[in-house]
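We close this part of the discussion by returning to an individual protein. The amino acid sequence and the backbone structure tokens for this protein are reproduced below:
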Amino acid sequence: MKKLLQSPESIFKEYIADWQTAFGREVEAILLYGSAAASEYVAGKSDINFLVMLTPAGMAKLRQAVAITEKWRPHGVQIPRVLTRDYIRASSDSFPIEFLDMKLRHRLVFGVDPLADLEISPQNLRLQLEREFKGNLLHLREGLLGAGYDRDVLRELLLRTIPAFAALFEAFLFLKNESIPPTRQEIFQKVAAIANLDSGFIADLFHLQEKSERLYREELWKLMEDYIAQIEKLTTYIDRI
């Protein structure tokens, strides 16, 4: 169970100190990214994600970070993405969606921001976007069958798709030269409007995230079917970009 943190800011000073104690000057930057860096952090529920940039010498001593990750895991702090500056520069073409997501939703906690001037290629973004949408569409279909009659499994599958598709939808909006709204629900709604999707499933999906009541199996199946239909429609739209 996560130990309640009222805000990510409450641990910044100690988290930075832990990394500096372990690695000294080999720590070049620490960034908070994801929902905790935006306006959607929910105490006790949201994960806290950090990117830690080390020098190559620091990366060679990575095992020294085990004590840090173990210390903060009970507080909802996920295993950080530990990268070097050269890796970031050389990999934005391979993982444009992931780096775009971090670039759009991050806060510099320590050091010099390695994402500030990072360029994302629209061509590489378009190719990964098509691949990810088609892969996630298959995952949704298989998940519907794999969940069987278990409502809890189906509910968790639906909830896990929200952050995954939010990153893809951000990339879609970036590719279309559209502004990106501050919340995930608004992002979903804007993509639906641009791609002429039936947005009815969006309110139900986010209601499922916000409320703890259990829906009937038929309601979950219907939500999943509507979801799949609209993602399939969006995938076809992206094919034509």
In short: Residues 122-239 form one domain. The chain has a mean pLDDT of 94. The two ends are 44 Å apart (CA to CA). The CA atoms of residues 10 and 96 lie 31 Å apart.
